[in-house]
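[agent] plan:
  1. take the single chain provided in the ticket
  2. run structure prediction with default settings
  3. attach structure tokens to the ticket
  4. add a short note for the reviewer (M.T.)
[agent] executing step 1
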Amino acid sequence: MPKSNYSSCIRDSHHIANLSRSHRSSSKRSPSRSYRPSSRSERSRSPLQGSTYHADKSHRSSQLREKYPTFHVHSSDYEVIFVNNKTSTNTMNKLLNHVNTCKQYAIDTESERTNNQLSLIQINSIPIKPPSFVMLFELQHLPDQNSQKYENIHQLFQLIFRSSNEIYSWGNMQKELEPAKELFIWPIPAALIDIQPHFPAWCNWARTQCRVQGLLHRNDMNDDNEFIQQHHQQSSCHCHPPSPYKINELWSLQNAFMYGCNLFIDKSCKLNHSSLSLSSSHSSLSHADQKKMMHYATHDVMAVTFLIRPITKNWTFEKIKNRKISEMFVAFNSTKLPPLPTSKNKKIKNINMQKFATLFRCNNPEAEEISSDDEIYLNQLIEPNVFKNEQDNK
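[agent] step 2 finished; step 3 output follows
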């Protein structure tokens, strides 16, 4: 690689890192959805300042959207099926037959912003042959519990979560599903596999592999021994930016996609009111909004599916880049993940968001939502001791 191009690559990686760091404060996952109370400065903002703040966020999202291709799965590779009180008997039978042959799934959830109640469960089947199914369970629109249709839905969950199956998620799904435990055999007999805490180690490893491949390529293409020696001394890859997170800190799904796959997950249509029907013609949502929210819900859970094999099978960045997206949504031979590293000084994390939301619930329209890709750490809730830090740095 010519020196000028390599320098450009380094500049681009730093630019990506700066853009992603600006999103960290709202990008880590929590057990459930809630409000994030505005800081003192946010609460005191005038309407004009609030507009400027949201405009800045929109501008940052636009920058990322321009920098990365948007993650998109072609509609021919999957089928979206709503499960609610309007689901036909034929559709239910179709689902029951389908899940009876599938052993692997990805799962995600959405909660209603106004009361933090679990309202949508998204399940992406990983069949032997495409297409995969994305099942959207609208929990606020299920049939009567004494009806045959409800019994069929209960049977559907039993088949999906049976003991021989693997359920992959981005976050602790045992906690997220607990509000709807009446739909499941509890505790859930299936293997619940949270790939989120395994992402940091994989990403660091993949960066080292990227560097090795890059050095081999430069050795073949460049005769400048001094230049080659200089880059052998570098500690990591420069084509992919370093992690903006602390060691073992949980990544957001959006940042994981940007850093690991060079793809952008568009969260501009997050389900702020996910208890509203996404399929009914009588919904208060417009048809256009329903389609946007459905697209977000389906691609959010398929993003989890997309990351399963890179993380569990130690794929390099190059292998992800060269793989067809459609190949990521078929069954595979699973690999047991290694045990997570333990620390003597464990971080206090995974705050009970249900209780936390109740304490800070307000009618402030500027209060930001914490999505299911969010994680709150104690050090984010406590203001740093500036004086102590200054003394320590002297």
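[agent] step 4 note for reviewer: The CA atoms of residues 146 and 224 lie 77 Å apart.
[agent] ticket updated
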